[in-house]
Write a structure and sequence with these properties.
This protein is of the alpha/beta class. It is built from nine helices and seven strands. The chain has one domain: Rossmann fold, CATH 3.40.50. A seven-stranded mixed beta sheet has the order 4-3-2-1-5-6-7, with helices on both faces. The longest helix is centred in the N-terminal third of the chain and has 14 residues. The protein starts with 7 loop residues before the first strand and ends with a helix.
C-alpha cells in the first residue's frame, strides 16, 4: 500500500508505456518503413520530427491518415487497469512528446487522463506543416515544477526523450526499454510487465 503521508505525483510517458507507438502504427499502415523510427532510435527529438514531417510531406500523409491509425489502436494489454490502479493511489500526469491532435481519438479509451503534450500546425487540408513544442524538454520542466510545489515525484518512461524526466524525478523507473538504453543508463530500475511496475512503485512509495 502507498504511503499516504507523501504527496506523490507519478509522471508517465504515453507511447510505449500505456499505448503503442503511433508512428510505428502509421508506418505499418502506410508501408513507409522510415516512419518506424522513434526516440528509441534517434535521441534528438527535433531531428526525428523534422525527418517525420519530411516523410509525411513526401507521401502526402495528413492528419486524416494518422487518425485512421489511432482510431484502430488500443491501449497496451493491462495499461487501462494499471492506470486505474495508480490513479487511486496518487496523482497521475502523463508527460508525452506526442501531439494532442494525434492522440485525441484514443484518450477516451483511457478515460481521459491528464496529458501534457505538444501541438501541431496544420494547413486547411490537415497537412502537417510544423510542430509546436509546449516547451523544450517539457517533461523535465514539468517534473521540476511539481517538485517546486513540494510533491514527491516518480517518473516512468521507456525512451531517450524520457531520460531527463527520470533524472529530474525523485525516482525514475524504466518500463520496457531497449537493451541499448538499459546499458547506457544502468542506474534506473527496469520493469517489463505492469505487475512488475506496480511492485516497483509500491516499494518506492512505502
Amino acid at each position: 500500500m502507498f504511503n499516504t503521508n507523501k504527496m506523490t505525483v507519478t509522471c508517465l510517458d504515453l507511447e510505449g508505456v500505456l499505448i503503442p507507438e503511433i508512428w510505428e502504427g502509421l508506418a505499418r499502415l502506410s508501408k513507409i518503413d522510415d516512419l518506424k523510427l522513434t526516440t528509441r532510435d534517434i535521441a534528438d527529438y527535433d531531428d526525428l520530427m523534422r525527418l517525420r514531417l519530411k516523410i509525411c510531406d513526401q507521401h502526402k500523409l495528413t492528419l486524416r491518415e494518422i487518425h485512421q491509425v489511432v482510431e484502430q489502436m488500443e491501449p497496451l494489454d493491462g495499461a487501462f487497469e494499471f492506470l486505474s490502479w495508480l490513479r487511486k493511489r496518487n496523482e497521475v500526469i502523463i508527460l508525452s512528446d506526442t501531439f494532442r491532435e494525434f492522440v485525441e481519438p484514443l484518450l477516451h479509451k483511457l478515460q481521459y487522463p491528464t496529458v501534457f503534450c505538444h501541438s501541431l500546425k496544420l494547413d486547411d487540408n490537415l497537412r502537417i506543416v510544423d510542430y509546436c513544442l509546449r516547451q523544450k524538454d517539457q517533461k523535465r520542466h514539468a517534473v521540476k515544477a511539481l517538485k517546486g510545489l513540494n510533491y514527491h515525484t516518480v517518473a516512468v518512461g521507456d525512451s531517450y526523450n524520457d531520460i531527463s524526466m527520470l533524472n529530474e524525478a525523485d525516482h525514475g523507473v524504466f518500463f520496457r526499454p531497449t537493451k541499448k538504453i538499459i546499458v547506457e543508463y544502468p542506474h534506473f530500475p527496469v520493469t517489463h510487465e505492469f505487475e512488475e511496475l506496480k511492485t516497483a512503485l509500491e516499494e518506492i512509495n512505502n
